[in-house]
Design a protein that fits this description.
Elements lengths: L21 E10 L5 E10 L7 E2 L3 E3 L5 E5 L6 E5 L11 E4 L5 E8 L5 E11 L4 E4 L15 E4 L21
Parallel strand pairs: 4-9
Antiparallel strand pairs: 1-2, 3-5, 5-7, 6-8, 8-9, 10-11
């Protein structure tokens, strides 16, 4: 019996899951073939596991400021981030992350009951786009003259934004 509810009529209670936190009464009633019986009762406590969620941006461009990642802290909680490379402090609930490459961070929280919970956060690191321009040489012109500037890159997903846009024929083309 668990909390006065029959859970097994055998002697093996493997794989029974108590899903509610709190105190529970577990009772074993043993009856032998002749009808004699004995009862054993044990009180157990099921402690809650921490619920872990990592908040913060997920995309970082190489050379940008680090991203801030946050996990809510409850009284008595401890945290450990893995891997620790690229993080400001692997034992802090608020960290800055600046990995060199795309990295999956795991925040493992241990609460005051010594129960653990974890959550992952992937930080995608975008590498800078190689940009070339032409003409490469002198771009000086006289008042009233025009010049054609061309930008090219090997990344077909690149967008362009020319600034300032005064007297530019196309502000979003390469």
């Amino acid at each position: 019996l668990i909390d006065d509810v029959p859970v097994s009529n055998g002697y093996n209670l493997n794989n029974y899951l108590i899903s509610k936190t709190g105190r529970h009464s577990v009772t074993l009633v043993a009856v032998e073939a002749g009808g004699c019986s004995d009862t054993l009762t044990k009180e157990i406590t099921i402690n809650p596991a921490p619920v872990v969620s990592v908040t913060g941006d997920s995309v970082l461009c190489t050379g940008d400021n680090p991203l801030t990642l946050t996990v809510v802290k409850n009284t008595g909680d401890r945290i450990n981030w893995t891997p620790s490379n690229g993080l400001s402090d692997a034992a802090s609930f608020i960290v800055t992350a600046a990995p060199a490459i795309t990295t999956v961070y795991t925040a493992k929280v241990t609460n005051s009951y010594n129960c653990t919970g974890a959550a992952n956060k992937t930080i995608y690191v975008n590498q800078p786009v190689g940009v070339t321009r032409s003409p490469l040489n002198d771009t000086s012109i006289f008042i009233g003259e025009g010049i054609q500037l061309t930008i090219s890159t090997s990344d077909s997903n690149t967008t362009y934004n020319w600034s300032p846009d005064y007297k530019i024929s196309c502000t979003d083309c390469g």
